[in-house]
Amino acid sequence: MTSPDLDEISAALAGHGLIQRGGFAFDHSNPAPGGPVGKPARSVLLVGQAGAAVWPYFLRWREAQPADLENPLDSWAREVIGDVAREFGAHAVSPSDKPYLPFQQWAMRAEGLRPSPLGILMHPEYGLWHAYRGALLFEAELEFAEVREQNHLCDLCPGKPCLKACPVDAYSEAGFAYERCLEHVRGASGGGCRTQGCLDRNACPYGVAYRYPADVQAFHMKSYAGL
User: Fold this and answer.
1) Can you say how many angstroms the Cα of residue 5 is from the centroid of all Cα atoms in its chain?
2) pLDDT at position 80, please?
3) pLDDT at residue number 220
4) d(CA 170, CA 179)
5) Which of 45, 58, 127, 143 has the smallest set of CB atoms within 10 Å of its CB?
6) What phi and psi, each to the nearest 5 degrees, are found at residue 34?
7) CA distance 28 to 139
8) What is the tens place of the pLDDT at every residue in 116-165?
9) 136 close to 91: Cβ distance less than 8 angstroms
């Protein structure tokens, strides 16, 4: 079987504001899900975004969809990544598929990243302003560049402002106080978080050139809070 051309896949993804986010061949340490014809896949290529590059593409798609469509961003990503998968003989999977696939573990292996104190993987260029929207599973064993160990910017950040900006201390060394955060975002005092995004995430000094605009952050906060 001829291996797909990664440059051609990149060009197809770029037509939706998406980018390749690294990949690897499955081995005994990473059990493989089913590929295009149901057999265990041999390679995975992660697909995602840097900054808010997908936003104009998503908004154009959204205009043609029902106003009450649930999880529209997930639906958009499934559709466009699914189209690319069919073009290149792959099987598309999503982070929201159930049973859940180990996307974060895949991402750490594919790009050599580690989690920030907020749980979001810290990228050496994008900071916290990136996302994984899906993955392509292939029957062929694709060749990827060797992943070099990345400087973990959180280790170089002495002040940890991401743990100090939240008015209800939702994030701490002890973990994420989900219920406390959600109550605040939904409440009368959480208007700034709803319209400008998570204060802890915005306090991170890295990747600021890729920071999501306020309307994009508001979209995500509204979805998170179920508003």
Assistant:
1) 23
2) 98
3) 96
4) 9
5) 143
6) -70, 140
7) 16
8) 999 999 999 999 999 999 999 999 989 898 888 778 999 989 889 999 99
9) yes
* DSSP-assigned beta bridge partners for residue 131: 49
Considering the entire predicted model, what is its pTM? 0.93
H or E stretch covering 176:
strand 175-176
Q: Judge residue 68's burial from the number of C-beta atoms within 10 Å of its C-beta, 0-12 exposed, 13-18 middle, 19 or more buried.
A: exposed
User: Percent of the chain scored above 90 by pLDDT?
Assistant: 80
What pLDDT is recorded for position 2?
64
Rg (CA), the chain: 18
Alpha-carbon torsion (13, 212, 66, 46), positive or negative:
positive
Q: Among all chains, which residue has been given the structure tokens 């160990």?
A: 149
Half-sphere exposure of 189 (CA within 13 A, CB side): 9
Residues 168-191 pLDDT 10s = 999 987 889 999 999 999 999 889
What local confidence, expressed as pLDDT, does residue 137 receive?
A: 95
Q: How far apart are CA 17 and CA 73, in angstroms?
A: 13
Q: Say if CB 10 and CB 19 are below 8 A apart.
A: yes
The burial of 200, by beta-carbon neighbours within 10 Å (0-12 exposed, 13-18 middle, 19 or more buried), is given as: buried
List the structure tokens of 118: 């907020």
Q: What distances in angstroms separate CA 60 from CA 2, 16, 64, one per listed residue?
A: 35, 11, 7
Lookup result for tokens 């936003």: 55
